[in-house]
């Protein structure tokens, strides 16, 4: 068990589980040990130099470096050339993600923060950009007063201070995204591409699905025993216990920011039923889920899109009927909404348009059939809802960047290679 990586606390402290974000100063004068982050965070490097290993890739740290760490990523400062002094902002990713999609995305376009922040986790600011980011962090520090900001629900009824912080936090994310897009070539990693290091983050962003060791084994081209061993050796938890740990974190966010019933939360988060979610939550947090909600949530759901219970039913319907002749019009009619409303819901729930989401589901199923059966590509096209091989191939190239035939060939060659590149199923992320 010597390889177990320390797991960060689920929230800021026993007293701050209902907070949205918190600001810290930190100084490192020697390398750290790896840590699994359950909370998202931003680092702004003010002084010092060193090397950060994030998800198996190494990045140079120097003044003006801005780092974004997402839930269930692993970080480690592996080298400190001179003491590193930095600002640290810890926040609930799911809560902020929901706020951006619900209240700030007026155009209802696709917003995939997970993918965008994962692509450019480390950016190197120019002098002007670094000065701007430094001021932004200081504004957050001054408004927070050294403590955590209440959840958005609390801020609605307690004045404008917390709303100011919420806006500044979102401003920080937007500017990080913009600078990262412009400077993406600068943050080139030093080491080899990631492989199994993505397993934990993949699990977290697919909790609403029926995750099994078999699913992970197929996705990462590893044996089930290898996946299980990696999880135990990395976290010290078995696969089922790790799933419960992750789901509790998601449960906290939903209890704070939505008014879903326990039955609905059980379905959304992959629990067996409401009694299962209540049992797991109470065992981990030491407080019943409904008591936690009554204690910390001040008003109902802030997310307008969640006023309708149709949202998850729509996603589930597409999942179950992907092979049929689905069109935006037919699905919209079934749920008595407009096509525009349908796409708004899907952009919020799965960060894809109707067409992209349907093809995403179909291509994932095609990958399974290519991997598990000897059916012809023409047969697989028919089984996954495509009229011909050409259409299947066109969409397969979009999502897998290779043809179905090449995919089957590469999977066959790499079936015993634990370091093979991650395959299908990475496109969608839960909010």
From TrEMBL:
Domain of life (superkingdom): Bacteria
Gene3D superfamilies, alphabetized: Homeodomain-like (1.10.10.60)
Entry's transmembrane regions: none
Gly residues composition-biased segments: 422-431
Keyword DNA-binding: yes
Domain HTH araC/xylS-type: 197-295, 312-410
Name used for this protein in its record: AraC family transcriptional regulator
The species this protein was found in: Enterocloster hominis (ex Hitch et al. 2024)
């Amino acid at each position: 068990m010597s390889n177990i990586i320390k797991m960060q606390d689920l929230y800021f402290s026993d007293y701050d589980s209902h907070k949205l974000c918190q600001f810290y100063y930190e100084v490192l004068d020697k390398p750290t040990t790896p840590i699994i982050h359950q909370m998202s965070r931003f680092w702004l490097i003010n002084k010092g130099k060193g090397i950060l290993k994030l998800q198996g890739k190494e990045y140079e740290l120097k003044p003006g470096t801005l780092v974004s760490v997402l839930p269930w990523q692993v970080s480690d400062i592996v080298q400190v050339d001179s003491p590193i002094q930095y600002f640290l902002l810890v926040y609930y990713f799911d809560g902020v993600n929901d706020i951006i999609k619900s209240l700030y995305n007026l155009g209802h376009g696709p917003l995939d923060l997970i993918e965008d922040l994962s692509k450019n986790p480390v950016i190197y600011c120019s002098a002007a950009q670094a000065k701007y980011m430094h001021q932004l962090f200081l504004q957050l520090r001054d408004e927070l007063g050294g403590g955590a900001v209440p959840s958005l629900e609390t801020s609605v009824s307690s004045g404008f201070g917390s709303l100011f912080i919420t806006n500044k936090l979102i401003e920080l994310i937007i500017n990080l995204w913009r600078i990262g897009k412009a400077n993406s070539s600068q943050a080139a990693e030093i080491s080899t591409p990631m492989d199994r290091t993505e397993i934990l983050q993949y699990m977290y962003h697919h909790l609403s699905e029926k995750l099994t060791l078999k699913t992970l084994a197929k996705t990462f081209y590893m044996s089930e025993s290898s996946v299980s061993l990696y999880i135990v050796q990395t976290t010290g938890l078995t696969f089922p216990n790790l799933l419960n740990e992750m789901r509790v974190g998601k449960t906290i966010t939903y209890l704070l920011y939505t008014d879903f019933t326990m039955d609905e939360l059980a379905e959304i988060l992959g629990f067996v039923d409401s009694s299962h979610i209540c049992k797991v939550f109470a065992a981990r947090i030491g407080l019943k889920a409904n008591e936690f909600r009554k204690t910390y949530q001040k008003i109902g759901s802030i997310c307008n899109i969640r006023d309708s219970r149709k949202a998850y039913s729509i996603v589930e319907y597409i999942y179950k009927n992907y092979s049929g002749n689905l069109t935006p019009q037919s699905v919209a009619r079934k749920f008595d909404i407009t096509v525009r409303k349908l796409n708004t819901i899907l952009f919020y729930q799965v960060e894809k348009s109707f067409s992209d989401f349907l093809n995403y589901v179909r291509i994932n199923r095609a990958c399974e059939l290519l991997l598990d059966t000897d059916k012809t590509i023409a047969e697989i096209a028919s089984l996954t809802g495509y009229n011909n091989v050409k259409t299947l191939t066109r969409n397969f190239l979009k999502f897998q960047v290779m043809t179905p035939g090449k995919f089957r060939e590469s999977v066959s060659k790499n079936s015993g290679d634990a370091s093979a590149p991650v395959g299908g199923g990475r496109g969608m992320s839960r909010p």
